[in-house]
Design goal:
Blueprint lengths: L8 H12 L3 H14 L4 E7 L5 E6 L6 H6 L27 H7 L2 E7 L1 E2 L2 E2 L2 E7 L2 E8 L4 E7 L6 H4 L5 H18 L4 E6 L2 E6 L5 H9 L1 H5 L1 E8 L2 E8 L4 E2 L5 E5 L2 E2 L3 H11 L8 E2 L1 E6 L5 E2 L10 E2 L2 H19 L30 H16 L6 H5 L3 E2 L36 E6 L3 E5 L3 E6 H18 L5 E11 L2 H9 L1 H6 L3 E4 L5 E8 L7 H12 L8 H16 L9 H12 L14 E5 H7 L4
Parallel strand pairs: 1-9, 14-17
Antiparallel strand pairs: 1-2, 2-8, 3-6, 3-8, 4-5, 6-7, 9-10, 11-12, 12-17, 13-16, 14-15, 18-19, 20-21, 21-22, 22-23, 23-27, 24-26, 25-26
Helix pairs in contact: 1-4, 2-6, 6-7, 6-14, 9-10, 13-17, 13-18, 16-17
């Protein structure tokens, strides 16, 4: 007897479902697309236990007849295609005829639908399917539109079910999926109910910016740069963030091609390339990008889930997108990159600090003006060429507006336990000479010249102090005189619920406000009393976004501490008192890991006496 056998229909359906239904959010995606293709103007989604227990989707679309309701569960049965050429001009979200049978193959599904006619809704149809097997088909009274109830997802595929994350994680994925479609279809009313909580409720609006306001709030929109450019049949529209609004993850990036939600490497790469050198490594811009292109120029049939696409002329499209993004940033950015200008030559006829003639809106002119102002300030320093080259603030005189660091004045930064003794941590070895460019501390030891980045050094000190507080469950809390309200995206709200206990342990007091995504911040860790609270909380949520269901408390604490230290640390271009500089250096040398900041960047650059002697040919 031969070894090759034809698989049963049930097994075929389960294999096909594995390509389309990855998690509960995949079910929501497919069913929402069906509702949109049916012309729905309102789509209501309800989920229980992150969608693994129940997903209900109702729409007011055109509905289905009795015959179509049965055909919809047959593989490759679709109303979108007739001939092969239709694939080249497909405009609907769904077209393969695989979504419903795939979902029905791995769940207990009930469909209620009625076709809308000129005289109102006709009689409805109920179809119940368990694990791909039809259990019941009968006529029912139904007002019109369609309702799908999906229960016990993956009940018959335990291998797939065990890979689902925590309920809150799956709910966050669903919220992000619904957010995508709400952005792409602002004229449609979307609601999302997770358990008893209303996560999304966005009535129809006329424009994308109104929908962004509904989902993310005014502050998010205020920092975004609008786009709307067309070239050779390709249009790019939407919004991107300015250089100062950056995230710790790609959670705030939404890509669409012809209204279809996509995970596209071409768009992500173009965005990343444009922001390289503008925002720090390891951070990401926010972006809501829509590409409109003739259907014949893309292939949406790459994967059954239809989230991957191919551009026929990918290089030209990527070049257009990158050029459009670069132009938008350059136009709206108040400063230019180093590539936009060259160092000014000597100009004896132009007094230092005098305004440069030219277009006042030119970013390059603005930079040149700031350079001249800096040179004017610099001219007040020692005037000989050698003195000017090496000028820095002396520890004897300090700076008139210098900041005195409070790293040794608060209980949250009490001295660390004694460090066992490598010579590198002998705090008597380093003597601070001064501050250079109000950003770097210059110090010496018996054998070395050292340059310390004051921001990352302070970051390391604060990070270790806060980790000790968390470990000892003794985080001092500072109540805000005026509580701050914060509008969170649906995904961020789910993330906040998931790690609420860790936020409380870290010294935050945050409570929900109303039924939407608004929260009220009433208290913060004492170490954060000088930071922008909203930016700090958003940054923490971004940093926690990719932690899985089985996250460790230590990993959460590490990320919270890293975010807090980054925001609370003294910034560059900040003058420091001599005592503060010496204090910071001493505390750094007492740290457990004084060589890098919590993000892995170096803290100190060293120049050994041997290297100096070699440079002066004394070796």
């Amino acid at each position: 007897m031969g070894k090759i056998r034809v698989l049963s229909d049930q097994l075929i359906n389960q294999i096909a479902a594995g390509e389309i239904v990855e998690r509960p959010a995949s079910v929501v995606k497919e069913l929402v697309e069906n509702a949109l293709d049916a012309g729905a103007t309102r789509i209501d989604i309800e989920v229980a236990r992150g969608g693994r227990e129940r997903i209900t989707i109702r729409d007011d679309g055109e509905g289905m007849s009795h015959e179509d309701a049965l055909l919809a569960f047959e593989h490759h049965a679709t109303s979108k295609l007739r001939v092969a050429e239709d694939l080249e001009r497909i405009a609907s979200l769904g077209f393969r005829g695989e979504a419903l049978p795939s979902v029905a193959a791995v769940s207990r599904l009930a469909l209620r639908t009625a076709e809308r006619t000129a005289g109102g809704a006709a009689g409805g149809t109920l179809v119940e399917i368990h694990g791909g097997v039809i259990r019941d088909v009968r006529p029912i009274a139904w007002a019109g539109g369609t309702e799908l109830v999906v229960r016990d997802l993956f009940f018959n595929v335990p291998a797939r079910k065990k890979f689902l994350r925590a309920d809150t994680t799956e709910s966050a994925h669903i919220a992000r999926t619904v957010t995508h479609y709400a952005l792409a279809w602002p004229a449609v009313h979307f609601t999302l109910l997770s358990g008893t909580r209303r996560v999304i409720d966005v009535p129809p609006v006329r424009s994308l910016d109104e929908r962004i306001h509904q989902l993310f709030g005014d502050e998010f929109l205020a920092d975004m740069i609008p786009l709307n450019t067309q070239e050779e049949g390709v249009r790019l529209s939407g919004f991107i963030s300015g250089p100062h609004q950056r995230r710790a993850s790609t959670e705030a990036q939404y890509f669409f091609v012809n209204g279809r939600m996509v995970r596209d490497r071409l768009l992500a790469t173009a965005l990343s390339q444009v922001y390289r050198g503008i925002i720090p490594g390891g951070t990401y811009p926010a972006a809501i990008l829509f590409v409109e292109i003739p259907s014949a120029e893309i292939d949406v049939n790459v994967h059954p889930a239809k989230t991957e696409i191919r551009f026929r002329q990918s290089w030209q499209v990527q070049t257009f997108i990158r050029r459009t993004l670069e132009t938008a940033i350059r136009t709206h950015r108040p400063f230019a990159s180093l590539a936009d200008w060259t160092a000014p030559a000597e100009q004896p006829d132009t007094p230092a600090g005098e305004a440069v003639t030219g277009d006042p809106g030119s970013a390059a002119d603005a930079v040149r003006q700031r350079v001249r102002e800096a040179l004017a300030d610099f001219s007040t320093q020692p005037t000989s060429p050698m003195e000017r080259r090496f000028a820095f603030t002396s520890v004897r005189t300090g700076a008139p507006d210098a900041l005195t660091l409070s790293i040794d004045r608060h209980p949250e930064t009490a001295a660390p336990p004694p460090v066992s003794g490598a010579a590198v941590k002998d705090t008597g070895r380093w003597q601070v000479l001064g501050q250079w460019r109000e950003s770097f501390i210059v110090a010496v030891s018996p054998d070395e010249l050292l340059v310390v980045d004051q921001h990352v050094a302070h970051e390391r000190v604060l990070y270790e102090a806060f980790r000790r507080q968390l470990g000892e469950r003794a985080v001092p809390r500072q109540r805000l005189l005026v509580p701050e309200t914060l509008e969170l995206s649906p995904a961020h709200r789910e993330e906040m619920d998931r790690v609420a206990n860790q936020f409380a342990a870290a010294g935050f007091e945050i409570e929900p406000f109303g039924s939407g995504g608004t929260v009220v911040i009433k208290a913060v860790p004492a170490m954060a009393n000088r930071v922008e609270v909203e930016l700090l909380v958003r940054d923490i949520l971004d940093r926690l976004g990719d932690i899985g269901a089985s996250f460790s408390i230590d990993e959460v604490q590490r990320r919270v501490a890293a975010a807090l230290a980054c925001h609370a640390a003294v910034k560059i271009h900040t003058p420091l008192e001599p005592e503060a500089m010496q204090n910071l250096v001493d505390r750094l040398l007492s740290a457990e890991e004084p060589t890098t900041c919590p993000h892995g960047r170096p803290v100190v650059l060293r120049l050994h006496i041997r290297d100096l002697e070699k440079g002066f040919k004394r070796a």
